[in-house]
Amino acid sequence: MHGASGSGKTTLAMAVAARLGLPHTELDGLYHQPHWTELDTGAFRDQVGRVVAGDRWVVDGNYRQVRDLVWERAEMIVILDLPRSMVMRQLIWRSVTRAAVGRELWNGNRESFSNLLSTDADRNVVLWSWRTHHRYRQEVPEEVRARAPHARLIILRSRRQISVFVDGLAPAH
Questions:
Q1: % of the chain surpassing 90 pLDDT
Q2: Could you tell me the CA-to-CA distances from 37 to 19, 33, 86, 158 in Å, in that order?
Q3: CATH code for 2-167?
């Protein structure tokens, strides 16, 4: 699953994994170590390589460092291309709620109001998403077509399309 931060990648990936009875991996949980320390590229690639070595899996995340590993084994690549206004509403609500309740994300990390007020896009997920939103409309689909022509490319542009997509998957037995 690919898409701007806050577009619903993890929510969709969890729904797909549950529907198909497959393991789900959120790449953010592998990459962001305690205190928001980034896992070094070699270790990150090793961990992701182990995940995608399995026969069937669902992975969500946008990390260029591991796209080759994920895409070469992917049967399907899903891109969430929701309107920027919808993504921003979802992301702001999610981030403010997480910061207010102190919800742990991965490895002890939490969103904070200070990060949400930062003008540094590397700290402020809302700014990051605003600045990178356009990538999932043209750049990523073009890259998928060029680098993973074997994979079925699905682009979902609305909540209705997301719902129809999940409902159309054959449930696990």
A1: 97
A2: 33, 5, 30, 34
A3: 3.40.50.300
